[in-house]
């Protein structure tokens, strides 16, 4: 409905134009002019009447002067001429007729005026002559002789009759009389009389003729004709105006009907509009609802986007950033305000210059849409971190955009590292397990010949001591002799040492094998019992009483009272403690240094700790981690097997406890055995063997 | 009384005109006669009004134009050249001097009281003062003006342009030039002649002989033609009813015949006004009468068919001398200097 409908406007405008035209036409046309013409005609009539009156008065000798008459005549002509000019621009037939009539009227008036002028002249002469005739006649009659009187009397009578009714025969008679008089020898007065008499009979009929002609001038009928024509013209134009008025009425009706029709249309449109409006309102409401939902959904989406740990960054195809989520801010440290519009490449540690050129290619994006790619990103402090980049493209309108979801994978990398370490450890442990199995097998194989060696060495020693008396005897007897390639005197002192060395070596093998067996002994056979840790400590100390006295002058125990009972194998715990005590005592460089054993509760009573502290040489930091590894020993020379702490740790693990060390080289070491108070039952996995 | 008659007559006319024009005329005659009998017969002569009501600025402008030689072709003549207002409103010459010095013109009539004439020029060729004014201005023998050039000349004078635009809405135009001149000419009235005072009831204004002259003027029939306010100027008459007047010059002036072409108008001229006649010699259309005595004698003999006794004539001349009025507060007189 945005297109303006011109048709009704044109129709209404057309009708209004028609109405205006008809209104103008229906107004009685030239009413003023017609009235003016009408009144002019009336005035002409009036002036004509005045003129006629004056002429008659003049003729009767009752008009003193011709001013008024002349004026009336000229006025009449002027009026008639003005009528003529008024009707000059004739276009209609009726007007042409009127113009013609006005021309005729003017011509008539002009004719009349000419005649009137003549009448005025003649009338003046006539009056003058009549007066003179009368005067002279009177003078002559009074002064005349009787004979002359008779002659004059006849003339007088004739003239009087002629003045009364100017008949031609009277005129002829008077002329005869005047001719007769003119023939007589008479004084000057008679000549004047005769001249005036002749003038009277000459002019008098002319004056009467002129008067008749003037009266006969059809001025009135011309005016009448003009009035008639004017009336006809008025009637015709009024009829025309009437027709226009009727048309005006009809057009007005049409306009009204059309307006009504338009009104009905408008009404219908209004109703439709109102309905549409209601619909629209409803739709608007729905749309608003939808919009609010949309907004909510968008907010949710934004919240989701923002809450995502991943950086979600959108760029246009020029690489300008158009969206930047909370995750990105957290990841890169830049705020959205700072980054919007910035090139995306600056976030990458090794951006390829034609990165986006490639991406603009449709295929490249399709390729990119699938897999992710790893890259190195730069955060605000220019520190690089590994990221995983997932690119996707989308289109809004004609613009194409790229969205990168960037995940900081440094934690994962770290975990992967840890897992690899653990894997390596597992492999190591597996190797250890295999080694343990191997060792227990080997131990057995070794132990049997070793027992033979041990047994035989004792026997050999007995044999040697018994043989020595004999040999001594022989030496005494026979002097020096060779024994096993060596001289007897040398052999006598060293053979016992050799045998004892054999025995010691065998014993050492026996011990290593025994410990190997302990290390690899499968758990689970021992009964889990409750025991008091202090008692175990006492027993271990008592067991090592001899060694303690030998190694240190300062040994002390600080056993906390009221420690809860522990569950486990007290024998193994005792073995662990003995192990630790031996290590501590052996670490002492001199007896002045002290060793102390303490039991206490740790961590609000949830753990029980046995602490063995010495002031020995300490452990190098790099060795602390390896203390519990099997076969790690710093006392190889002193017969250390490297299995003691490994076995200890293994035993403790089996009981839910653990072993920890802290040491400062040169100052001493503190070893702790920590038991949880509710030890978790040991699992198979936790046991190395 | 008269107004009533007019109304009555007009209603009568309206009522009767439809029926029969003849009957209507008969009624008119009856009415007119009855009214005329009842009415006091008006005097054939009437006094000039003491004052005329005119548009003063136009009169002043007209006066300026009247005296401006720029109105003529050569810039030599103004209206006042032939109608000097200090000398009876005419040049006092037998015949007017034509511009080319060859053409034969008629005697210059006085411009005083011209507005009370009904016909202008000796032959009555025009009937309005405006037409007369323009005619004289454009006459090649008199002022020989041509409108476009004349208007051009007047436009060159800023005063005229100002004055015209002040007085006339459409400023300086041909019609307005004529109008201003005509207005001025209408102001040329000479009231307060002794005869006028006599007519207004001052019987002492005329002495016995002058009054005798007035009576003779009536009785002899002069008044038959010299009537009205201007004692003439409102009709035509043949010059020489009783015999041909003496001193006719060649060629014969046909007079009004030149205007109408009617045979009976041969030798017919306008009856001139006798106002200020004593200061407007010489007389007649051709100036043949050098003085009033000669003029009165000629008129009596050839127009009235009578020879006057010297006494009669002198009385009439004396009467005619009482017709001299005042212009601008002074009685008109012949200016000897301008009249050689």
TrEMBL record, chain A:
PANTHER family: SENSOR HISTIDINE KINASE (PTHR43065), TWO-COMPONENT SENSOR PPRA (PTHR43065:SF42). Its EC number is 2.7.13.3. The lineage of its organism: Bacteria, Pseudomonadati, Pseudomonadota, Gammaproteobacteria, Methylococcales. Residues 441-679 form the Histidine kinase domain. It comes from Methylomonas denitrificans. The chain crosses the membrane at residues 246-266. Gene3D superfamilies: 1.10.287.130, Histidine kinase-like ATPase, C-terminal domain, PAS domain. This is histidine kinase. Residues 297-342 form the PAS domain. It comes from the Bacteria. PROSITE patterns: HIS_KIN, PAS. GO terms for molecular function: ATP binding; protein histidine kinase activity. It holds the Pfam family HATPase_c. Keywords: ATP-binding, Kinase, Membrane, Nucleotide-binding, Phosphoprotein, Transferase, Transmembrane, Transmembrane helix, Two-component regulatory system. It catalyses: ATP + protein L-histidine = ADP + protein N-phospho-L-histidine. InterPro entries: DAHL, HATPase_C_sf, HATPase_dom, His_kinase_dom, PAS, PAS-like_dom_sf, PAS_fold, Sig_transdc_His_kin-like_C. GO terms for biological process: phosphorelay signal transduction system; regulation of DNA-templated transcription.
UniProtKB/TrEMBL annotation, chain B:
Pfam families: CCP_MauG. It is found in: Periplasm. One of its GO terms (molecular function) is peroxidase activity. It comes from the Bacteria. The lineage of its organism: Bacteria, Pseudomonadati, Pseudomonadota, Gammaproteobacteria, Methylococcales. Keywords: Heme, Iron, Metal-binding, Oxidoreductase, Periplasm, Peroxidase, Signal. This is Cytochrome c peroxidase. It comes from Methylomonas methanica. InterPro entries: Cyt_c-like_dom, Cyt_c-like_dom_sf, Cytochrome_c_Peroxidase/MauG, Di-haem_cyt_c_peroxidsae, MauG/Cytc_peroxidase. Its main location: periplasm. Residues 208-324 form the Cytochrome c domain.
